[in-house]
Design a protein that fits this description.
single chain, alpha/beta, Rossmann fold, seven-stranded parallel β-sheet, three-stranded antiparallel β-sheet, globular, binds fructose -6-phosphate
Amino acid sequence: MKVRIFDTPEAVASALAERVADALAARPSLVLGLPTGRTPIAAYAELRRLHTAGRADFSRASTFNLDEFAGIPALHAGSFRAFMDRHLFGAVNLPPARIHFLDGAADDLDAECARYEAAIEAAGGLDLQMLGIGANGHIGFNEPGDELAARTHRVRLADTTRRDNAPLFGGDPANVPREALSMGMGTILKAAEIVLIATGERKAQCVERAIGGPVTTRLPASFLQLHPRVELYLDRAAASRLRP
Ligand code: F6R
């Protein structure tokens, strides 16, 4: 894995946005995998800025978000779809037909997962997957456990993850759905290139274990060691446990 360490979270955000803008310039029909969460918010703001400055053209790009809560419609303010509309989609020239999302309100959630997996294949696969990382090492909603699902699937969310997402649901973890849909680790690892961002001391331990520890289902991010083209963009705090 290629590790790049930046002085501040802002520098991580701007490097990631530049990385995406460069990828769009090199391949205008880029198929981009996207995360939600607190960490990419600043990068999405930077991407909006680059778009306004004429440096990030999404007109031929496609996007696939990593995950979505189950049981709530896209229009729900707490949905990841609403998050993406707020932070990116509403302010760039991405054609709505090429924005792909898991439908957490689908009647048949297993069929919805299969549909999504097929849609990624039909788009030619993910060219560049952006990732965040949970403090417990989760990637997308692939939570630590005895096993990991390879393909897009339903997940039961860990209590820590529900707590982390409480701000989207009025601050109360009890309001966060218990289930979600997520790309699987195999779906993610099939992306041609992966860029993971992590900022803050809270991520230092899982970053250290993801890079230097064993590959284990107990730390889903450790599976990234198996991918040939992964870059990690870290601020100093997230990198603080890495040996120089
Ligand atoms: C959400 C996702 C999650 C987040 C992770 C970190 O789409 O993929 O795996 O990346 O929970 O979230 P933050 O950035 O809020 O620490």
